[in-house]
Structures are given as structure tokens and as C-alpha cells.
Write a structure and sequence with these properties.
3 helices; mainly alpha
């Protein structure tokens, strides 16, 4: 048997792993996309998007302490 064909056959046998990984990454991406654009999360992301533009300091209860 041709060594090139033997190597190609070995690569095809492990191809199902690549297919499963592709499906998992696609599902993860679609979930992330749904989460980012879901109407229930809109207010949270709008507030987070304005945070860099706010000049007001945080209230004392929301300040982050670095220990």
C-alpha cells in the first residue's frame, strides 16, 4: 500500500474527534451569542457599557477593596 494513502487513512480515522470539537465550539459560540443579545440582559450590558464614561465615584457600598 502506498505510504501516503496509509497516512491519509490514519488521519480520517481520527476525524470524528475534530467533528465533535467543531460541534461543541459552535454550540458554545451560539450560546454566548444568545446570552449577549438576550433582551433580559440588555440593561446589565448597557450599564456596563457606560461604566468607562462615568465620572462619578462609586458609592461606599460598591467600592472595590484591594487587600
Amino acid at each position: 500500500m502506498n505510504p501516503l494513502i496509509r497516512e491519509a487513512a490514519g488521519a480520517v480515522q481520527g476525524g470524528w474527534i475534530l467533528g465533535v470539537m467543531t460541534a461543541v465550539f459552535l454550540a458554545t459560540f451560539l450560546f454566548w451569542l444568545w446570552y449577549a443579545y438576550a433582551p433580559a440582559h440588555r440593561a446589565r450590558f448597557e450599564e456596563a457599557g457606560r461604566m468607562p464614561l462615568d465620572d462619578e465615584p462609586l458609592p461606599p457600598s460598591e467600592e472595590v477593596s484591594v487587600e
